[in-house]
Amino acid sequence: MYYMGIDLHKKYFVSTIVDKEGKVLKRSRVSTDRESIKHYFSLLKDKGPIKAVMEATFNWVYFYDEISPFVD
Q1: pTM of the full structure
Q2: For residues 11 and 31, is the Cβ–Cβ distance under 8 A?
């Protein structure tokens, strides 16, 4: 199990992925366009289950809809 924190902005998001011990495994900055989101999360799908949390900003619903197939 991995854990992802997401800082969502209008044109990009920043994510940090940690393992169960809290060790940082990956930090990324990714565009919030649909194709970039899908590409980023498709690269992670073989790594194992990921629990994600994000701040509730104006565009969280759109972003949630895009990432929900990839995270628990």
Answers
A1: 0.88
A2: yes
